Amino acid sequence: MLFYSFFKTLIGQQVTVELKNDLAITGILTSVDQFLNIKLDEIRAVDDAKYPHMMAVKNCFIRGSVVRYVQLPASAVDTALLQDAARREAQQPTTGGAH
Amino acid sequence: MSDSFFGFDTTLPPLNVDQSTGLRTGEQQDETEEEEVERKIKDFSLESGENFEDYEQNIDLDQLEEEADDLNDETFGNVGDIGQDFDFTESTAKIVDTIKKEEEIYVGRRESTMSDKGEEQSRRRPSYAALWGNDSDIIFNGKSNHSNEIVGAPSLSESPISPSIWGSFHAPSSRTEGGIIPTSFENSHHYTPPQTSPPPLGFGPPLHPSVRTPMSLEEIEAQLHRQAGVPEKRMLSLAEVEAALLSINGRPPPPQHLMYSNNETPFRDHENPNFLEQEAAYREQEAAYREQEAILFHKEKKRRDRQRKLVEMSRYNGLMTQSDKDFINRIQISQLVTDDPYADDFYYQVYTAIRSRQPQPSISTFSPQLGGSGFMGHERGRHRSRGSESGLLKMQQQVLRIVNDARRKPKLTQLSLEGALGKIALNSVRNPRQLLQVSSKSNDIHHVGPSNGSGSIHSQHQKIPSISSHGVIDHRKILKSIENVYTAVLALEELRRNQPPLPRPYADHERVAVERWNEDYVELAKTMWEELRVTEMSGCYPHPFISVLSVAKGKKVIPRVIRHCLPEQIFNLITVLVSNFETLDVCKGAIWGPQGNVSPAMLEEVELFMNTVVPPLLQFVAESPLRIVIGLFGLFIERNNIVWVARSKVGLAFLTMFLSRAEILKQGGGAMQGLPPPEELEMIQWQDLYNRLFSLLQNHFLSLYPPFMIGIDDMYVWQFLAAMAVGASTEQQHVLVTEVRERVLETVIQASRLSADKASHKIANVNLFLNALGLDASQLKV
């Protein structure tokens, strides 16, 4: 749940989502769910010359499983807190094997 | 004629109250109107020079007859006596059913029905009836029109009877008397504007008043003309009437106007060049209209599109009931819900708390559906309106139930069905399928057995700058203990967040809660302190605590640890640090050689140390009495090769810290913190220590600087020298100046070659030292 928790804090920030089909989309993160499905607004393909059909698309829903990377704004990430959150995640008794 | 008129009327289908009253007023109106008509005819005949005498006589005759009211009853009674010419009702009554059926069709194609005259007689009426009937309905329904507007009144009065008026009165008269009709028509145009102006008021659909009403007028007129055989030019007069009507209406419909101007302009262009200006005006207007139209069209199109989409979507309205939706919601929420948001949603919770500084809600859910942020707390709920609050409350209760359910039956990770081969893994968001299966058993073997993974252990040792001569301190053990420190710190921080309120008197359970909390807290703080290994006397080298500080995350945890430490513990910590200072990685690894050989990674570590470890210790020292400062300072000089340590940035920072604190206390700065002024003995002890430090560093002051041209900010050195200079005697100051004179001059010369802001920084650095001596860089002559 750490990633879900993390992405929730990025709502409203501009992110670039790189998909497994090499399409990279920059947009404002509007929502994310526990499957890390992503909704973007005001989107723009990073390489619009290669994907002209994306010009007309203004917002999109991205299934979590097709995401390869998400480029984050560094200023919106609290790395120290992220470390703590990871520690807490690791500490949870059920996390050892199952959770 | 009027007889026939009235006789005609009596056989009409029974009128309702409104119509009959309208009829009566209509009669009166007619009388006055006819007088008016006579007068006008006279005027007209005078103007035009035509002789209307015959007609007048005719009318006079009519009127004479009409004046014989006493015979009216007989006349009305004996319809049959009057010639069949005027008995329209009887002929129409025969085909009344067919008329009614065909009424709609006739309305649709009125013009085409007028071809045949014989048929026209019978058909005209129904078409009129349809016309008038509709309109009179509208008028009667809109009673306010009738009462408020004078214009509306005549039309109201005329409408019920006008079929008979126009059908029977005018038609025969015009057939025989030719000229009357145009005159009366023009008159009517004059004195009864209702005939022309009412249409926009009550006739037809309000959207296109001027489109439909002129049509009906034209039609009526055409029929009249056909009957009367009036020359075509009267049509023009009606067109003029129409134009006047449009202008009276004030707001002609743009499309029609546009068409008009479109057709007109070319003609005018050719015929009359004087119209150029007008044409330009037309063009402008036209452009404006076009623009407006385009905008309107665009808007309309958009609206239609949206409407269409809505309609499309509304097909699926009501496909799911509310309980269906709730069920789906529950499925989603149950995946996200947690009884401990800090455990499962730690990052989000703390992040938002840090960013927004808002009070933490006691219960929270993960769900993005609940409120924008997925928060559902008492704090927020309170500010909401009642309706949404009750909704929230319901949701909250539901969430609580889900949480409790989840607690009662812990989630299974695997399911083995009877008779099934193998197990079914129940993967979920909380329990994702594991891609790596690392068994903890083999991990332990690797960890314990020294022979088993020695290679990797060695490589780890090369990474950390530790001398493992006495007793091997496993780097992993250090990392493990740092993680344990973190665990304890996180637990402590969570305890702090959940600190129970101060117990009220006589509330035993609250007192017990506070006591338990205190116990937990002390216990955890003790664990943390032990894991920090400050007091560990294992005899290994370096000290375990120093090893902890040699790791970046070990440095980072210090400020958070110190918040949970007692003052004695901090003193212990700083004592251990000071006495083992030269084994610190940021000290021994960050000493500048003549060539400047400190790695960038180490510089980062130094910065990290300066930003994390130094500030809380500086704060501690800044509140300490001189006794403690002397103790720590003495230990620092005693246990370390001070000339060597002072060449590191952190070493110099510690020296500066002690020196400046001692100076403040010497000058009575401790009084502000409630500390007693330092005793004589302490002052002497301090002076001894200072002199010792000075003698140790003498002839080495210049070596404290990082290499000159390497671009490292040497402010900390100037700060140290300033701290030294403040406490120095005159001879010592002289020694200081002599030793660093070269550096001062170099810096000032360098500054003169740099840009303004860089130069001022350099000069400011130098001035730190020079001002402590009572000098200034501006006094220097380069």
TrEMBL record, chain A:
InterPro entries: LSM_dom_sf, Sm, Sm_dom_euk/arc, U6_snRNA_Lsm2. GO terms for cellular component: catalytic step 2 spliceosome; Lsm1-7-Pat1 complex; P-body; precatalytic spliceosome; U4/U6 x U5 tri-snRNP complex; U6 snRNP. Gene3D superfamilies: 2.30.30.100. GO terms for biological process: mRNA splicing, via spliceosome. Residues 2-76 form the Sm domain. GO terms for molecular function: RNA binding. Keywords: mRNA processing, mRNA splicing, Nucleus, Ribonucleoprotein, RNA-binding, Spliceosome. Coiled coil: none annotated. It is found in: Nucleus. CDD domains: LSm2 (cd01725). It holds the Pfam family LSM. Its main location: nucleus. It comes from the Eukaryota. Belongs to the snRNP Sm proteins family. Component of LSm protein complexes, which are involved in RNA processing and may function in a chaperone-like manner. This is LSM complex subunit LSm2. It comes from Gigaspora margarita.
UniProtKB/TrEMBL annotation, chain B:
It comes from Gigaspora margarita. Residues 1-43 are annotated as: Disordered. GO terms for molecular function: isomerase activity; RNA binding. GO terms for cellular component: nucleus; P-body. One of its GO terms (biological process) is P-body assembly. This is Topoisomerase II-associated protein PAT1. The keyword Ribonucleoprotein does not apply. Keywords: Cytoplasm, Isomerase, Nucleus, RNA-binding. Residues 4-262, 291-777 form the mRNA decay factor PAT1 domain. The keyword Cytoplasm applies. It holds the Pfam family PAT1. Belongs to the PAT1 family. It comes from the Eukaryota. PANTHER family: PROTEIN ASSOCIATED WITH TOPO II RELATED-1, ISOFORM A (PTHR21551:SF0), TOPOISOMERASE II-ASSOCIATED PROTEIN PAT1 (PTHR21551). Transmembrane segments: none annotated. It is found in: Cytoplasm, P-body; Nucleus.
